[in-house]
Specification:
By secondary structure, chain A is of the alpha/beta class. Chain A has four helices and five strands. Chain A has one domain: 3-Layer(aba) Sandwich (Rossmann fold). The radius of gyration of chain B is 22 Å and the shape is elongated. Classes of the chains: A alpha/beta, B alpha/beta.
Chain lengths: 122, 401
Amino acid sequence: MRKKILVVEDEEGLRLLYQEELETEGYEVITARNGREAIQKLEEGRPDLIVLDIVMPVMDGMEALGRIVGKDRKIPIILNTSYSGYRDDFMSWVADAYVTKSSDLEELKAKVKELLEKGRGR
Amino acid sequence: MKKVVTMLLAGGRGERLYPLTRDRAKPAVPFGAIYRIIDFTLSNCINSEIRHIYILTQYKSTSLHRHIQLGWNILSTTLGEFIEVIPAQQRIDEHWYQGTADAIFQNIYTLQQEKPDLVLILSGDHIYKMDYRKMIAYHLEKRADLTVAAIRMDRRLSKEFGVMEVDEEGRIIGFQEKPVDPKTIPGDPEGILASMGIYVFDTEILVRRLIEDARSDSTHDFGKDIIPSMIQKDRVFHFDFRQGDREGTGYWKDVGTIDAYYEANIDLVSVTPHLNLYDPNWPILAYQPPYPPAKTVLEEEGRTGSALNSILSNGCIISGGNVRRSILSPKVLVHSYAEIEDSILLSGVDVGRHVKIRRAIIDKDVHIPPGTKIGYDLDEDAKRFTVTASGIVVVPKWIKL
């Protein structure tokens, strides 16, 4: 069965880009425009992994990260942001990976693949 | 100078202290006439020059909040000092705290704001006098990731404690939570090293271990989950309570049951109690409402107001009654011909004429009608009050007699 990825990203262009690229990799992709929508999506069905932007309107990624883990401890989460400064933020350590956005999506794709293969057997 | 933030866990339900914990969390239970249990831990903090304190509450916290607000508004916000109560906010999880580790994890945003070097984790459930600075110094000297305070306990009590095994260096190499068959202290087959629930953590390690724990199947408890997992991979040391014990006697009481609570209180009326409340260099601070001084009145044949071997708080009036070996909290009234022996009366209790009370705990504001006998016929008392195995009668708050 195809793995399902939830992409949380407020910028429409990027959202479409991630969706297209990840679908090309063979994943099923659903999207949300902010943290609050992401939590709603989570209630509709569990994705296998979440790609989460940090700076977003309505509910940002840091706040959403806590709520998501509060609902589902084991879901793998990748923080995907233009800013590296959040790495010092304790809450960002809750995520399984921290990827700084770039035009090249190879790092993100590699992390997605790695985390899905590893699973969260802990 | 390292920056230390204290997280004081004050969510204990204290179910075995019922009915004293019916309306309040365990740290808010009165102790020693004018104190609450939490006052001892908070006084330790202040006396150890620790002034960045968060108190984490959840169950039945109104009484505790009020007490902190009234009695502990003593630090300087200008200097960045604080004692701040944080109720369970359900910011991450929509549940109550699931364990001691979860309580800290749920407040990770607060730790983020402060970004201390070290986190001191305490519980508001115990009565003892300890200089936390000594434990912090030891933690730094050992370059530890975690230091756990330890006290020698009788091995028969192992089911109530986290029990540790240590090497010659002081490093913890084994940790079992409430074991039936504990590892005893080398050379002391009747003794165990029990965890006091006092931890000094390197902040970064704490956060990383809390996150790992939060993201796994676990009971989210320091004793059951965090410490056992850390002794494998981190530098975990024990700190001998005797090195930081202000009393020098090893006094550390859990007062987890009514009987233990009664004994620890009543000990204070002895000539030399095990707990010294008179150390001028280690004051125990408490909220003291502005009542007038205690007094005794009337001196007639058979109607003399007197108190012997007892503790009387402000606002008490002993009017023509007798009080022996008892502890009276503020504003207790004892009317003529009443006799009180070996008892603990909490604030606002009114004892009517000809009342006889012995071996009892009377909770706040109870009015005892004239002629009532408590503690003289335990079968009769058990019909309306709590009576413990050793025969202590507890009259609950709000009861109408």
